[in-house]
Amino acid sequence: TSRFDPAAADSRWQQRWEAERCFAADSASSKPKTYVLEMFPYPSGRIHMGHVRNYTMGDVIARYRRMRGFEVLHPMGWDAFGMPAENAAMERKVHPGTWTWSNIATMRDQLKRLGFALDWSRELATCDPAYYGHEQALFLDMFQAGLVYRKESEVNWDPVDMTVLANEQVIDGRGWRSGAVVERRKLNQWFLKITDFAEDLLEGLGTLDQWPDKVRLMQENWIGKSRGLQFRFQLADAGAGTSEIEVFTTRPDTIFGASFVAIAAGHPIAEALAADDPALAEFIAECRAGGTSAAEIETAEKKGYRTALEVVHPLDPEWRLPVYVANFVLMDYGTGALFGVPAHDQRDFEFATRYHLPIHRVVASSIGEAGKPVEGEAETLSGVAVNSRFLDGMPTDQAKGEVIRRAEAGGWGEGKTQYRLRDWGVSRQRYWGTPIPIIHCDACGPVPVPKDQLPVTLPEDVSFDIPGNPLDRHPTWRNVDCPKCGSAARRETDTLDTFVDSSWYFIRFASQPSDRPFDRAEAESWLPVAQYIGGVEHAILHLLYARFWTRALAHIGQIGVAEPFKGLFTQGMVTHETYKSLDGRWLAPTEIEVRDGGRLVEAATESEVERGRIEKMSKSKRNTIDPEPIVDRYGADAVRWFMLSDSPPERDLEWSESGIDGAARFVQRVWRLVGSTGGDGEDSAVRKKLHRTIAAVGEAVDGLQFNKAVAQLYELVGTLEKAQPSSDRSEAIRALVQLIAPMAPHLAEECWSMLGGEGLVALSEWPTFDPALLIDDQVTVAVQVNGKLRDTLTAARGLSREELQALALASDKIQRQLDGASPKKVIVVPDRLVNIVA
Ligand code: ANZ
Ligand code: ZN
């Protein structure tokens, strides 16, 4: 037929792949194995363009590697627990499970229509007890190994989602999902000891040479290793039940610049003092209203409360410093107390300015600058110590070492390595999550649920009529007998952070026995994931948690994998223009029509529309394009092809009508070419072009440069369209079909069968190239007169000096330059350059 018809072809090939189980990964295979994974989606309702782009990239790699002879694991599943399901339950009175499973059904169909080469037999959903029951078992194993603990702690409380958030989930002081300003609360929480692995997580980054530098740097900063000094200030008069305050500093070199000591609002000394100081108690309460993340504290106004306490400077018994309770001191960092050096720390500078505390310079670029005042803002760079007695003139690093040495010798402090990383608080006061498998008994404390009673499943009969956690108010689910002593006890009603679910799903994909989380040998045969692809928004959260979880499993002897993701690629977003009505409403692209002269109007009202910026597709800006009608209209291959075309994969891709039209035209061009094979005789130019394209496409896909692969294929098609019939051309068309198979798999299958190819092109062997044909036999030679470029020649490679010189002198342009004069001297660099000195 004259046109490729995706409406008929797409589903036919999809059924065939499924019937033949083409993409099922065989763990017992003797081929080399490779694991290609895209971050699994949250089943929010429908697939969006970001998913399509992400999964198309992964699919190209998976299909390509299969054709290169690998046994490929390329699975898909659902990150199915989380808040939106509960919101839907509250808004629409539908059970979170019903909502989630129906979304999964829709999105699964949508993914299947895109023809991804996925092993659907390994599909999993984290909200399935068959998944989360194993997670509970792993949690208990970690509990037994001391990697899980419960502690009362100050937490970030999201007042809208009514739950605790990890520090990683508070962005600019707001909940990452709700956007609500986060408050501080003291609650009993479950924690995972990620800090035990801080050094290892940091060192591991050094081995991840197939990760983007920026992601490694973000993790490094998040872990935040610093070397410092922990030491004790003696109180001038004992009080508040203590005689000393212990502080941590990364700048012991600035010790002579101290003007105050500050402790956190949650510090035991602050609490003791507040017992008989109502004003302080009030100040502490005020500090609680505000997030606990470092970023939040950095931006908040620096406030303090001056206590009656004073401490003695450790290096000068005559020197007294006032003690404040301050809102910018974190309780769970260092010792929850610090000494402030206003001249060299911005927070301290702001604090000192507000409370009129002295600002002493103790670091300068040279000794001569010792007298220069510090004004406007703190000077945080290193330099040499000044106004610092025995430290004067020492470079900052040396001065740090000297103070640590004196502290250790004097017995008042110790050198210490500190990490900014905090333990991972995993308790969530939500229903739609993995129940924490613990039972609270008054006599025995927290008792693990016996493993033969797992999974602890969520009760179905819950209501969302009032905010809060329905597990807390369930009439029966909470009430159980203590597994240890048999007396009446209560189930833990917190559920696990959904990031726990995504910390090991890639292991479960690799191996899924029903009676345990995974089989070690089988999982290890696939891991680490060779290529992981997802959004950079997970640079810290998910990727750090998964790295930790893998280490924790290794620590308890369950797996021997150092890093879960060997290669990481973070793809750009899909963007689109935005539109706004004159009264400020965002309009969807489908509501817009173009009038004469490119004027935009709102279709319904004919009123004028303002063209806004090109932005990431989002519901809030209403600039999304639903992939489904696009697939209906153009077919899966055109959509896939466009997703790979216009931009490098790490950059944003702007969705455009002309782009998808172009992709659809390309599909038909390939189809017409395939209908035009035949002829005999050779065509060495076509042959050469083919071999170069095979090499270049392979290199581009290996390097995840999909747009380059696409450009190469456009060129090859152009060449073949112009070429005369020949056996070389027919052979090239056949190879072309294989080269496009990873990107446009339905078209490729259809063409392959038309050409009488054996079996499925998806399972065929990637074409090979002859390296000899890659060598250029034409070279470009620059011709200069007196050092100035005057002409360039195309010549056969390997000509002799004499031949090149003759060619250069035969050029009209050169003859005109010489204007009758004969050259004094000619310098020839073979294959590159002829320089004529006249
Ligand atoms: C004196 C000093 C002088 C400091 C100076 C900094 C600059 P990093 O480097 O991020 O690890 N600090 C200590 N405990 C704290 C807490 N619980 N909450 C908030 N800040 C705390 O931060 C270490 C520095 O942060 C420490 O070094 C301390 O201030 C402060 F020119 O001590 B520094
Ligand atoms: Zn008990």
UniProtKB/TrEMBL annotation:
UniProt enzyme class: ligase
One Pfam family recorded for the sequence: tRNA-synt_1
GO MF annotation: an example: aminoacyl-tRNA deacylase activity
Record-level GO cellular component terms: cytosol
Motif ('KMSKS' region): 616-620
Highest taxon of source: Bacteria
Entry similarity comment: Belongs to the class-I aminoacyl-tRNA synthetase family.
Official protein name in the record: Leucine--tRNA ligase
Organism the protein comes from: Sphingomonas piscis
Lineage, broadest ranks: Bacteria, Pseudomonadati, Pseudomonadota, Alphaproteobacteria, Sphingomonadales
